[in-house]
Design a protein that fits this description.
heterodimer; A: mainly alpha; 2 domains; 13 helices; 78% helix; B: mainly alpha; elongated
Chain lengths: 312, 270
């Protein structure tokens, strides 16, 4: 079988199993959503009618198949709490969560690459020790606490950026400003991890023979590092970057709560407290599917970075 | 770096000592509410000040250390207890067993601990046990992966071949020859997961998916501090610093142990 086809099949299987796990767990939830919607005073026949309308009287394989069919066609049902289509709600929220995660990823890379390259080029010297000490601190920082400190300094004291809320993409500049502090809070701990990985990978490649050759032919340390070592150090960095994107998506769930951002994470929390399981089920699936998809793309990216891995 | 190892050990010991001491003694009673003393800044009587109920923050942080350390430690136990045997099995059997274990791992890995916690909470309601389960489940593939990766090369070594020739089964070889050889690496990974567990527990309690009131926990203290952070910053700063120092200590300890246990790594990476 062609490698790409094999990978696509394995991707499809992963997504299918993940959806089954999510469905099973949400299905385990005690309590009947229909009686929850109607309250304790509802008459039994009213509850039964709503159960039928919601499809809750059907056996679980049918309900699972219906949900899965809905996922494929984009019809995820209607939210019990808001009476609006779940797909629309999720789409709205993704428009906040995804840009936030991407901004954080870009910020993390923008900080981590210079820091990691600098530390690797100064290996063992004061600059290296300082950067590495800083990254230890960055890794130990809970991002939501860092977020609170950022709000305290940049929103409350200096009043440069908003402390929370989201004006919507109708006001692009205000929207970007609203995502700025959340993105920094998400990015810094990830940048610390990334810088450390990049530094180790660079140091390892710098000891290879072809770097010695490059130096022998007259390249400076910095040139050898940028032109030859960096590209070869990218594989472990890509692995971490892929994993980090999923951490950023998950981390965004907490950060959205600090900044009252209407993202996917806040939606999931609201839906849980309102027992709006139709929403929980699909929103969690979107999150998990995103993680699986990113892992898949990282696998493909390996082949692009390292020709030796092509065809495997 | 020897200094890192020592600093890490000291910080870790400090956190554990604070948690243990809180069972027998805290400066003030953490259940004692005294509204008259609320939101006091640090003073001689209350070195870290008081919170919105007038409770002594130093005492709260000490008791909170119990929750954080216990949750993270039990989660490491779950991860090791299930992950290490799975990794050993995958390495010992290879073939389709390996494939199934590793694909299963990838699947679990696609569920960040926060998402697992959300699902468990949706099904059973929030509690500290959920946090342990959620972080523990997330730890399983981590340990399985590390175990498999370091166990695989050992299977090709001569003394393992010799044990096979002598008629020992794969399970026995895994237990008697592979496990002792990878134990040090597992301890290092355990330290790292322990520190990640403390961060995860803090995050989960912060959003209300972990320890429930009245159990004090660092994450919940931060959640409660959020609305008062402008009035009394110390309420938010102290628990955060406690988390940072504990996690920093465990990370330094893990790095130091790795260097001490595996000089080859040190030569390559230090």
């Amino acid at each position: 079988m062609r490698p790409l086809i094999r990978r696509l099949i394995s991707l499809a299987v992963s997504l299918l199993v993940a959806s089954a796990v999510i469905f099973a767990v949400v299905d385990l939830v005690p309590g009947d959503p229909a009686s929850f919607v109607l309250g304790t005073g509802a008459r039994p026949d009213t509850v039964a009618a709503l159960r039928e309308q919601m499809g809750l009287d059907l056996p679980w394989p049918v309900r699972y198949a219906r949900w899965l069919g809905g996922v494929v066609t984009g019809d995820l049902g209607t939210s019990l709490a808001y009476k609006t289509p779940v797909a629309d709600m999720i789409a709205d929220r993704v428009l906040v969560s995804l840009p936030l995660a991407l901004m954080a990823l870009v910020l993390a890379v923008a900080v981590a690459f210079p820091a990691g390259m600098y530390a690797a080029s100064r290996r063992g010297r004061a600059g290296d020790v300082a950067v590495m000490g800083g990254t230890q601190l960055g890794i130990a920082l809970p991002n939501f606490w860092f977020a609170m400190l950022l709000v305290l300094v940049f929103a409350v004291r200096l009043r440069w950026l908003p402390a929370g809320g989201f004006p919507g993409w109708g006001h692009p500049l205000a929207a970007l400003k609203a995502l700025m502090l959340p993105a920094i809070a998400l990015a810094l701990p990830q940048a610390a991890i990334l810088a450390r990985v990049l530094r180790s990978a660079l140091i390892e490649t710098l000891e290879q023979d072809y770097i010695r050759s490059a130096r022998a032919k007259g390249l400076s340390r910095g040139q050898a590092l940028r032109r030859h070592a960096l590209r070869n150090a990218l594989i472990p960095v890509l692995t971490i970057l892929g994993m980090q994107f999923s951490f950023l998506l998950a981390g965004a769930i907490i950060i959205e709560n600090v900044f009252y951002l209407p993202g996917l994470g806040r939606l999931i929390f609201q839906a849980i407290s309102q027992r709006d399981l139709v929403v929980v089920q699909s929103a969690v699936l979107v999150l998990v599917a995103a993680v699986i998809l990113v892992t898949f793309l990282v696998d493909l990216a390996y082949a692009a970075v390292d020709p030796r891995l092509r065809g495997r | 770096m020897r200094a890192g190892l020592i600093l890490g050990a000291v910080l870790t010991a400090l956190a554990i000592a604070a948690a243990l001491l809180s069972f027998v003694w805290t400066p003030f009673d953490v259940t004692g509410v005294s509204i008259a003393d609320k939101l006091r800044p640090p003073s001689a009587a209350h070195p870290f000040g008081t919170d919105h109920f007038g409770r002594d923050i130093l005492s709260m942080v000490m008791v909170g250390a119990r929750t954080s350390l216990a949750v993270a430690l039990l989660a490491v136990g779950i991860g090791m207890g299930a992950g290490v045997p799975l990794g050993l099995l995958a390495a010992a059997r290879g073939g389709w067993v390996d494939e199934v274990v590793m694909r299963g791992n990838d699947l679990v890995f696609a569920f960040p601990s926060l998402v697992i916690a959300i699902l468990i909470t949706a099904a059973f309601g929030p509690s500290a046990v959920n946090a342990i389960l959620a972080i523990g489940i997330f730890n399983i593939p981590v340990f399985a992966r590390v175990t498999r990766a370091v166990a695989l090369p050992i299977w090709t070594l001569d003394y393992v071949r010799a044990a096979q020739v002598a008629g020992k089964g794969r399970a026995r070889i895994s237990a008697e020859h592979i496990l002792p050889n990878i134990a040090s690496l597992l301890i290092v990974q355990g330290t790292i997961q322990f520190s990640l567990g403390i961060l995860a527990e803090a995050g989960l309690s912060y959003v209300g998916l972990g320890a429930q009131p009245p159990t004090p926990s660092w994450g919940r203290m931060l959640a409660e501090a959020q609305t008062m952070v402008t009035l009394a910053p110390h309420v938010a700063i102290v628990p955060g610093v406690a988390i940072v120092l504990t996690v920093l200590g465990l990370n330094l300890l893990g790095d130091g142990l790795r260097d001490a246990l595996d000089p080859r790594l040190k030569a390559r990476l230090a």
